[in-house]
């Protein structure tokens, strides 16, 4: 028991690092899953990337919680996990011929035909440009924050955005617009 300046008695409850981490991840998990799903275009692979990101976040929890913006820190870890996983050769292996994906529970139901066309095109955009497009237009982050997340300059983010959008337009057959 401890007393405050007015003499009132209260109990100090220390929250452990694990409890603090668990509380943060519980609150942030829907946002992280949605971002990973959009980056990967696949709910199962997105969940794998989230798991990797959460594991890395746990191992660096003291540093992460000291960050100015914990959500930005977690988002950066997630995007880097996505980019690292994409670089691995096994990520190119498909175990099934068709799409076995179930609708992701965190996204509103889109027009199926449009969604498939856009997803197919987005999957063909290089991973780094895809990450920039998702952070800019899905996560709605400003250029400066995307640059911090990806550890690059703002001009790189702008050029990757332009290149990614040009690639999407080309893939969607909208080059002349």
From TrEMBL:
It comes from the Bacteria. Residues 25-90 form the RNA polymerase sigma-70 region domain. The keyword Ubl conjugation does not apply. Gene3D superfamilies: 1.10.1740.10, Winged helix-like DNA-binding domain superfamily/Winged helix DNA-binding domain (1.10.10.10). One of its GO terms (molecular function) is sigma factor activity. Keywords: DNA-binding, Sigma factor, Transcription, Transcription regulation. Residues 116-168 form the RNA polymerase sigma factor 70 region 4 type domain. Signal peptide: none annotated. GO terms for biological process: DNA-templated transcription initiation. SUPFAM superfamilies: Sigma2 domain of RNA polymerase sigma factors, Sigma3 and sigma4 domains of RNA polymerase sigma factors. InterPro entries: RNA_pol_sigma-70-like, RNA_pol_sigma-70_dom, RNA_pol_sigma70_r2, RNA_pol_sigma70_r4_t2, RNA_pol_sigma_r2, RNA_pol_sigma_r3/r4-like, WH-like_DNA-bd_sf. PANTHER family: ECF RNA POLYMERASE SIGMA FACTOR SIGM, RNA POLYMERASE ECF-TYPE SIGMA FACTO. Belongs to the sigma-70 factor family. ECF subfamily. NCBIfam families: sigma70-ECF. This is RNA polymerase sigma-70 factor (Sigma-E family). It comes from Saccharothrix variisporea.
